[in-house]
Structure prediction request, 533 residues.
Amino acid sequence: MLLDDQLPRIQKLIREKLGPLPVNALQNEAVMQAAFRRLYQALPRMIRLAVSEQGFVEFCMANRERLLNLGDAVSEKFSTAKTTDTNVNVTESVHNVELKKRKTRTTAEMLATAQRVFLPTYAPSLILSRSQGAKVWDRDGQEYIDFGAGISVNNLGHQDPELLKALTEQSGKLWHTTNLYLTEPAIKLAENLVDATFADRVFFCNSGAEANEAAIKLARKSSSLLHPPEKREILTFEGSFHGRTLATVTATAQPKYQQGFEPLPGGFRYCPFNDFEVATEMIGANTCAVLVEPVQGEGGVNPAKTGFLLHLRKLCDQHNALLIFDEIQSGMGRTGKLFGYQWEETEALESHHAAEPAESSERKLIPDIVTMAKALGGGLPIGAMLCTEKVSQCFKPGDHGTTFGGNPIVTAVAGAAFRKINTPEMLSGVLKKGTIIKKHLESLNDELSFFETIRGRGMMIGAVLSKAWKNKAPSMVTACQQQGVLVLIAGPDVLRFLPPLNISEEELKVGLDRVSQALNIVHAEELSSASQS
Prediction:
């Protein structure tokens, strides 16, 4: 095929696929060759069958002036291009000018673009551009103390040196392999998790929802191998949150997340959280698993009552059901222990300290499955399902899988995060700083009477608004943002505090002072509004 005959078609493809190019790019051999290689991939299959990529690139290089409409003559086929001096001093193409304009767009313009191009699943009003430690900055340079930590993802804050080191080192070695092959970072992380927990086996995925999906599948598969078909029910709890896939949103016993996605998968039942009697009635012969958050996060930072998780363990043992703890938000040291469920054993021991000791087996709490995500990756996407050897053997090759789970870069960073968080020093610091948060909020409440109760564990704190301030949590979060501190909600009536675990006490107190300033403003505005009405 004579490419000379295809000049008009190639010129049209250049305009469509490459766009305007700088005039001085003609003299840059590497840039032009790369552009023409990209163009080759856009050619009709008929042309690509007739001409090799190398031949096409050589032809385009020899005739680049004519192809780009910058010269009148076509040089001989495959000849060396002749370049001539020009008085045109164009340094940027229209494309580059447009890019430059985009970089200088205002925040309002960027927010409008975001509103136009994203699905309307969120409604953010802030564009963050950089971070360091417990602080983040928006694109206008405004500083914020981060009391949300990416919803308990950045438990070590932002740009942690040890995580950065792990990321940098691994990114220079290997990025992705799939699980058809093993990588050292994934093996090391799995070994760390097994050594530090109840678990014998680990499955890596990419998110909390995926970890819970894996747990649900494993529970159902286990029951299918051991029990009759009717024993497939999974019990979850009102106020829970387990993810947004169809299975995990069905496991999430909050109708607001399920509406419009019917028909939902069957086999899930919902029990009131912390209700011992109803749990006893509902867990029975058809129950294959119980899935529970030791501290409900989206449900209002609501911890399990002392003894409730042990009660579930006994019921599961009685009815041959698996006990699954969702530690996606409460795990990785957030509560002052590696996992939130471990508080149950501590409190059980304390409750028997003065009385006659109970059997140790009654105080020992061992789950069958635990799911993790969020802070495990230190800011990178990862999920993990941990389980016992007995349960793990219900899966065989082909029963479950993942393309990206166990990615070497992510597991390298996760390993560094896990080893840094799972230390006595870090966990004791969480308890100390959690006490500072609670005491500050209690003092603020003595002054303003905002909160009905302040609950949670460690640095996972929920301030439940009183009836007089019902539905005001979103406006309070906005006020905090205006004062330079990022706070979360857990429903319309709960302020949620999840600072980085390694935040300094000084920065913690600065952030809490900003919260006080914001809430004092909200209080004053409410009084002013009430007096005018």
User: Anything to note?
Assistant: The longest strand covers residues 451-457. Residues 70-92 have pLDDT under 50 and may be disordered. The chain is about 45% helix and 15% strand.
